[in-house]
Write a structure and sequence with these properties.
This protein has 755 residues and is an alpha/beta fold. The protein has 25 helices and 25 strands. The protein starts with 6 loop residues before the first helix and ends in a 13-residue tail after the last helix.
């Protein structure tokens, strides 16, 4: 049979084709075009970022300077309050001082209780304003009367001034209510005010439009050539004014910030393409002369590799695992080292797969070691079916296997192998006349990207395996750069966790739940945070999995209960003593026989009524070890503590536990609430859960409420409580108290506010 043409010969023959230099030139032209486009886009982003910063700086300057003038007018009003017998002459002298100091006022006025301008500085240019009634419309009269009664500042907005032109007036009442002695008013011409508040650099480089409640109110620098496609709008936080600035740069400003690198890069890479094409022509001439020599060399290397492969096969027979019949760890590592050496010379990739059987330890402990050994043999037989000249399967020990794939040309080769491995577990394993389904989790490291030697490659594959287990098992994870650093950080965090309780580094934040029937906040969920001394405030997902792995979750759970009871005790005798706090329990905490005793001790220590504490467990925890959990939850119910099922609807359990367990609340999982107003199925499920719970006498809490439409839907379908970012994010107790006192939370329908 004729020997097939080698890959090297195909490559050499392809490189000798005359079209190759042309293709190289086209390739470089494509790269140059893509890079130029990317750099142009980067320029655009940088210009937009600079414009955003300039706009925000203008808004900040406008806010700061405007408030200075508001305070100046307020001080004049306070001086008149302090000296109600002040004469017009003395007042005029005071006003002239302010005019000289600030240089921006059109006029300063004293307006009597009947809204008539009596005193005015300067009089020149403003003569016809004296005696003018500033309550010239019903709207202005109402605003001034409200300011007069409440003692609050009133700002007219941009109006047509009596003196002529556009302007703005700040009215500061002199005393409020019955004691009111009129107003001190500061009158500004808009052009003078805007040019005073904005710098010359801004005025030279930008066209600025001031809008009041989204309606154009005033423009600066209307002439000139501007880059309209770069306009940016920013809100200005001024009292009683809904101003926004729309800033448009000049074309000179935009051009000064454009880089020369896009064209420079394009020309440089295109020049490199021309040189590379010419070089390729020369290489083709050299390859044609040495083709025969290259062919002979490759054949010799092939013979050497064949001999080495034969030697490896012989060594494999002497280095197999006695139980599984697979290669043992020592032989696998030697073979891997040799494989890496060949791969280095041939510039090939090698894949190392670390495989861990899911739930094997539990099956081994439950059904016995003989069962475990038989299962390992069955698994090994299926995995060994994947072995060929490119794939080596070995047994590492325990429930771990190692697989080496040689001659990897692309990532698709590795993905194909992973699919073959998963197929090995598609059918159940028959062990001791019983069928058992088992899955596997895998971590993959690729030579040379993930390591240049066997030890590094093995360590990185093991790190990838651990990451895959974190994702829920029965999956795989490739090693990526940074995993090792994250592993070190994880170990440091685990070490710090052991000192966190002793150093009192944990804090509780509270997310309130609104009662939809009465629009009241009656309860809040306690959520733990870790105030790490170096990394700042950490959310639960950063450390709770570590706590569960290390077994510290029980101590942390006890701390949460104690801290919640302490907070409830602080609220006794205050306006917040009606609040109930919900705490979350993990499955490991529920397994603790002393759980109920610890909760009872915390309640009694702080003299807190049990009904003010609520315990939340996920639906999955409820159905684990049903007999034990029923006993624990019944004792908690007898204690008087409320019980809630969290994440309801995402488990795979029977609804029978709703009948058997003493459940007080169901918390509908946020996955159903997120699209409850868009997806018909989510709406049907949510209504069904509410009706089911109410028929069983159980209250319903909806989690993840983020829009008013969701809140309205829940209220219309008689959901009892709602919780989510629409009402409030989790906040410290002091922040929660302040928000409840000020009434700044969304508690009813309709409301046009988000927290």
């Amino acid at each position: 049979m004729e020997k097939p043409e080698s890959v090297t010969n195909k490559v050499v023959r392809g490189l000798l084709h005359p079209v190759v230099p042309v293709l190289i030139l086209i390739f470089f032209l494509g790269i140059a075009s893509v890079l130029k486009y990317g750099l142009d886009r980067q320029d655009e982003r940088q210009i937009n970022s600079n414009l955003t910063n300039e706009s925000q700086a203008m808004a900040n300057s406008l806010e700061r300077e405007f408030l200075v003038h508001v305070e100046a007018v307020r001080r004049m009003a306070q001086r008149l309050e302090a000296r109600p017998d002040m004469t017009e002459e003395l007042w005029s002298q005071d006003a002239r001082n302010y005019l000289d100091d600030f240089g921006v006022y059109q006029a300063l006025e004293w307006i009597d209780r009947e809204f008539i301008i009596r005193w005015l500085e300067p009089l020149s240019g403003n003569e016809e304003v004296v005696g003018y009634n500033v309550a010239f419309s019903a709207e202005r009269r109402a605003a001034l009367e409200a300011a007069q009664a409440n003692g609050t500042i009133d700002i007219s907005g941009i109006i047509d001034l009596r003196q002529g032109g556009k302007g703005l007036v700040i009215y500061v009442p002199v005393y409020a209510g019955e004691r009111n002695n009129g107003f001190i008013a500061g009158v500004f011409q808009m052009d003078t005010l805007a040019r005073h508040l904005l710098t010359n650099r801004v005025l030279d480089a930008f066209y600025v439009r001031i809008s009041d409640d989204d309606a154009p109110a005033y423009e600066l620098n209307t002439g000139g050539e501007y880059a309209r496609n770069y306009a940016h709008t920013v809100d200005v936080d001024l009292p009683m004014l809904g101003w926004s600035l729309t800033v448009t740069p000049t074309t000179d400003w935009v051009n000064s910030r454009k880089s020369i690198w896009p064209w420079t890069t394009f020309i440089s890479i295109l020049f490199m393409g021309v040189l590379t094409s010419l070089t390729t022509l020369l290489v083709q001439l050299v390859l044609k002369r040495n083709r025969a020599l290259l062919k002979t060399r490759k054949e010799l290397e092939f013979e050497i590799d064949q001999r080495k492969a034969a030697q490896q096969d012989l060594a494999r027979l002497e280095s197999t695992d006695a139980l599984t019949g697979l290669a043992n760890r020592r032989f696998f590592m030697e073979d891997l080292s040799h494989t890496l050496s060949i791969a280095d010379r041939q510039m090939r990739q090698v894949a190392l797969v670390m495989l861990d059987l899911d739930r094997f330890q539990m099956l081994n402990d439950t059904l016995g070691h003989q069962f475990g050994d038989e299962l390992l043999i069955k698994v090994s037989e299926r995995l060994n079916s994947l072995s060929d000249e490119k794939v080596l399967v070995a047994y590492s020990g325990g429930d771990e296997f190692m697989i080496c794939q040689q001659h990897v040309d692309s990532l698709d080769d590795v993905i194909h192998l992973l699919g073959q491995i998963k197929q090995c577990y598609a059918e159940p394993f028959e062990v001791q006349n019983e069928a058992h389904y088992i899955t596997a989790t895998m971590g993959i490291a690729i030579y040379p990207q993930s390591g240049l030697d066997t030890d590094t490659l093995l360590r990185n594959a093991d790190i990838a395996l651990y990451r895959a287990k974190e994702q829920g098992r029965n999956t795989y994870q490739f090693y990526t750069e940074g995993m090792q650093e994250r592993e070190v950080m994880r170990l440091e965090l685990d070490k710090d966790l052991s000192h966190a309780l002793a150093n009192d580094e944990f804090v509780l934040h509270y997310q309130p739940q609104v009662n939809l029937a009465g629009a009241e906040i009656l309860s809040a969920e306690a959520l733990i945070r870790w105030q790490h001394p170096r990394r700042g405030l950490l959310p639960p997902m950063e450390f709770i999995p570590l706590a569960e792995e290390s077994g510290r979750i029980t101590e942390i759970g006890r701390w949460v209960v104690m801290a919640a009871c302490q907070q409830l005790a602080r609220w006794q005798g205050t306006a917040f003593e009606h609040l109930r706090i919900a705490v979350n329990l993990s499955g490991r905490e529920l397994d603790d026989e002393h759980l109920v005793d610890h909760i009872r001790e915390a309640l009694e220590t702080h003299n807190v009524p049990p009904e003010r504490l609520e315990v939340e467990l996920t639906e999955e925890i409820f159905i684990q070890n049903i007999e034990h959990n029923l006993n624990q939850l019944s004792r908690l119910h007898q204690l008087g503590v409320s019980l809630a099922i969290d994440d309801f609807g995402v488990g795979y359990s029977s609804l029978g536990y709703l009948r058997d367990f003493p459940v007080d609340l169901l918390k509908i999982d946020r996955s159903f609430i997120t699209e409850v107003t868009e997806r018909h199925d989510d709406a049907v499920i949510t209504r069904a859960v509410i009706n089911l719970a109410h028929n069983l006498g159980i209250q319903v809490v909806a989690e993840g409420v983020e829009t008013m439409d969701q809140l309205t839907f829940l209220k219309d379908h008689h959901c009892d409580l709602a919780q989510g970012y629409l009402i409030s994010r989790p906040v410290p107790a002091a922040t929660l108290e302040k928000a409840l006192t000020e009434g700044t939370m969304v508690t009813g329908v309709p409301v046009d506010t988000r927290i």
